[in-house]
Amino acid sequence: xxxxxxxxxVQILAALQVNNQATAQALADRVPLxxxxxxxxxxxxxxxxxxxxxxxxxxxxxxxxxxxxILMVQLERHSxxxxxxxxxxxxxxxxxxxxxxxxxxxxxxxxxxxxNMEEFNDFTDANIAGHPAVRRYEASFVKRRAKFTxxxxx
Length: 154
What we know:
By secondary structure, this protein is of the alpha+beta class. The protein has two domains: 7-48, Arc Repressor Mutant, subunit A (Orthogonal Bundle); 61-141, Lrp/AsnC effector binding domain/regulation of amino acid metabolism (RAM) domain (Alpha-Beta Plaits, 2-Layer Sandwich). It is built from five helices and four strands, in the order αααβαββαβ. It has helices at 7-18, 24-28, 35-48, 80-91, 117-129, and strands at 67-75, 96-101, 108-114, 134-141. Strands 2-3-1-4 form a four-stranded antiparallel β-sheet, covered by helices on one side. The chain is elongated. The chain starts with 6 loop residues before the first helix and ends in a 13-residue tail after the last strand.
């Protein structure tokens, strides 16, 4: 079910996407509502699933060297059960940050993060290269992260 957003909802949600730790008073300074009205709306967003999670986004370079990889996977078989099983298989990995079923030459693309090349090789050997559903895969390594956001334009 989708949530019908009014102008005030858009302002509140846009501000929360920048800083979900903003106080109700700080939000009320930007949105023409009382802090208590803002808190009620935020509670409704959470209860209704509009806000899926409140998380801290960690800067990878601040916690040690990491390599990010874009994986493109072409499946051997395309039955709904095969695709769903393989997608779930990838999503169980803590390395996989994003997993998308896509159209085109490849069936699934993932963005994954690893400490080093050895960890990447272990992951692909165990989870992709030998998987019976996989026809082929390609990996592209991220050279530089020019932009990263989880924000949705509202």
